[in-house]
Design a protein that fits this description.
single chain; about 475 residues; alpha+beta; Alpha-Beta Plaits; 5 domains; seven-stranded antiparallel β-sheet; 18 helices; 18 strands
Length: about 475
């Protein structure tokens, strides 16, 4: 280990290499705290050249590495690897170029999501993908997991806004995909790289598309007696042909948490509320507003409450954006899932989640992107009570299987990571799984980049295609 430490110390100054147990503890898990592992070291580069040097070092020494930004992954996607190193990218936080005429921003991977919109705001522009953690999550992580957000219904996921990438692959090769143009020819390499969950390498520079700020908004809060009624209202909105900027749903438990945390003012006594937001040119919003209000009224809500001004609109969204963290007031531990179901089956899915939750003798708060069927059930448990974590994980698995059964997906934006890797074969047959392995091998033949993620145990390329990993032979990592 001393020789390894000496060689690694040639790449970065000592103050940017963390070795002590107390220092490593802060990186042992990400937002999915049920899983943890201790890496050998944390490397903190400040430039793209230092990242490249670290990756090339790992490739030469056959040392696994995990790239990490703010650690907000809810699927264990930035969980470290025992026997490997963590490359922390937070100091690569520069907006390298912002061109308001072309409506693009070129940023480093450690730039905070919201910082892009803040920088673009002076030019009447913003960056559309808005995950709930947008005030702390980084663009590098957004690219790795193809993050979405409340407004992905209208504007799409991260992949719809990445025009170009410069990245270092796990082999140490530096590649450039795409460009600053919206008109691109040939294979969509940016689309392939975005959402790779860190299995291909590390993004060094990302060219993002910026959009003009909407001229106006119409935001409506509607409360319902049952979850199914709220789900049916979502189906009615989408079936009408309207394309709101966002359709969000929160159930009673999530409402309780948000009210306690940020004093959100939501209709009392409702089993669920919808937040529906129209945005765009004033004339179009004015026309669509009448249609939306009529659809919502026909869905027989307990209460309809349009935001009268920007202050009320922001108050509505503050409760929604805080919901995940607010649930921590109701339970010491919780698991967040993000399976997807077809919108027409949203009401059925919510009913079944309620039944499964009661059978498991647990509580579940639902707060999610209803417009695209992206469920976010938050399963509450107390890890100190024997067997509760296992019951919560079993319930999460049943929800994922239900999503696939209904024609959906095991993940909408959080990624597969560690948490959902055993459910990947439920979505893909053996031939498709083999194709996924071949793609991973093409970018990372030694499976050094973020190993142990996405692929089920015993099927990871490092264990199938290449036999035992060198660190496994040395006893530094294991299959267990």
């Amino acid at each position: 280990m001393t020789t390894f430490a000496n060689r690694l110390s040639l790449l970065l100054p000592p103050e940017r290499l963390l070795w002590q147990p107390a220092q490593l503890a802060a990186y042992q898990s990400d937002a999915l705290t049920a899983y943890h592992a201790q890496p050998i070291a944390i490397a903190i580069p400040e430039t793209a050249d230092e990242v490249i040097a670290l990756v090339r070092f790992c490739s030469k020494e056959k040392i696994p590495f995990v790239a990490r930004g703010s650690g907000t992954s809810l699927s264990g996607g930035s969980l470290p690897v025992a026997g490997g190193i963590v490359i922390a990218l937070n100091r690569l936080n520069r907006i390298l170029h912002l061109d308001p005429r072309q409506r693009i921003a070129v940023v480093e991977p450690g730039v905070i999501n919201l910082a892009v919109s803040t920088a673009a705001s002076a030019h009447g522009l913003y960056y559309a993908p808005d995950p709930s953690s947008q005030s702390i999550c980084t663009i590098g992580g957004n690219v790795a997991f193809n993050s979405g957000g409340a407004h992905c219904l209208k504007y799409g996921m991260t992949s719809n806004h990445v025009l170009g990438l410069k990245a270092v692959l796990a082999t140490g090769e530096v590649v450039t995909f795409g460009s600053s143009s919206r008109e691109q020819l040939g294979p969509d390499w940016c689309g392939l790289f975005t959402g790779n969950e860190g299995l291909f390498g590390i993004a060094l520079e990302v060219t993002l598309q910026l959009l003009p700020k909407p001229e106006c908004y119409h935001t409506v809060l509607a409360g319902y007696r049952t979850l199914e009624e709220a789900g049916d209202a979502v189906s009615a909105i989408v079936a009408s042909g309207l394309l709101p900027g966002a359709i969000e749903l929160m159930d009673a438990l999530a409402l309780e948490a948000a009210t306690a945390a940020v004093h959100a003012d939501y209709p009392a006594g409702c089993a669920a509320v919808l937040i529906v937001e129209l945005e765009g040119p004033r004339e179009i919003v004015a026309t669509e507003r009448g249609r939306l209000d009529a659809i919502l009224a026909a869905s027989q809500p307990v209460e309809m409450r349009p935001a009268r001004d920007s202050t009320e609109r922001l108050a509505i969204w503050k409760g929604r954006k805080s919901a995940f963290s607010a649930v921590g007031r109701l339970s010491p531990d919780f698991i967040v899932q993000d399976g997807v179901v077809p919108r027409r089956r949203l009401g059925e899915a919510l009913r079944r989640i309620g039944e499964m939750t009661r059978d498991a003798q647990l509580r579940c708060a639902n707060v999610f992107h209803a417009g695209d069927g992206n469920l976010h059930p938050l399963i509450l448990y107390n890890g100190r009570n024997p067997g509760e974590l296992e019951r919560a994980e079993a319930l999460a698995g049943k929800i994922l299987n239900m999503c696939v059964e209904l024609g959906g997906s095991i993940t909408g934006e959080h990624g597969v990571g560690v948490e959902k890797r055993d459910y990947l074969p439920a979505m893909f047959n053996p031939e498709e799984m083999a194709c996924l392995h071949r793609i991973r091998d093409a970018f990372d033949p030694l499976s050094l980049a973020n190993p142990g993620k996405m692929f089920p145990d015993g099927q990871a390329p490092a264990l199938v295609s290449h036999g035992l990993h060198p660190l496994e032979k040395a006893g530094l990592i294991s299959r267990e």
